[in-house]
Amino acid sequence: MKARVFVTLKPSVFDPQGKTIADALHSLGYTGVADVRQGKFFEIDVEARTADQAFHVASEVADKVLANPVIESYRVEIPES
Amino acid sequence: MKARVFVTLKPSVFDPQGKTIADALHSLGYTGVADVRQGKFFEIDVEARTADQAFHVASEVADKVLANPVIESYRVEIPES
């Protein structure tokens, strides 16, 4: 079963990568872009019988390995298949 | 208006980062994790009047700047606010 994990910097944490992308877009003429935040995205293939079980495993993996809970927050999604 | 852009390597492209994460998870005891693919996730704040307009700007930005269309594919979402 596929699980999707989205990891983003917490809103209070400065995101230099996103700032650089926003500046680059401005210099390319995209003045309508106010702000960019960059995060990470993981697609995990979990062997699980139910969506609940897959969600549980993906959340544990996200919390322990994929995200740094001090500065990052994460969201887990199980897409309907 | 917020737009979300997801950039992932095309399925035919080898993802060494994802492979490393999967191996690390196996060695940590998560044997139920079959495969991991890593991608990028961007939250863009676009000045647009309609969702369609925001979608258009975000797609253009994704195609020209955020993704490398040769090896990556992208998906744009306008979350309901």
Number of distinct beta strands of chain A = 3
CATH topology of chain A: Mth169, Chain: A
Order of helices and strands of chain A: EHEHE
Give the full name of the CATH homologous superfamily of chain A: Phosphoribosylformylglycinamidine synthase subunit PurS
Q: Report the portion of residues of chain A in β strands.
A: 25-35%
The helix fraction of chain A, in percent, is 25-40%
Describe the oligomeric state of these chains in a short phrase: homodimer
Shape of chain A: elongated
Rg of chain A, Å, rounded = 16 Å
Overall pLDDT score of chain A: 92
Strand order of the largest sheet of chain A: 2-1-3
> Largest interface, counted with CB-CB under 8 A?
A-B, 32 and 32 residues
CATH architectural designation of chain A: 2-Layer Sandwich
Largest sheet of chain A at a glance?
Answer: 3 strands, antiparallel
Distance between the termini of chain A: 8 Å
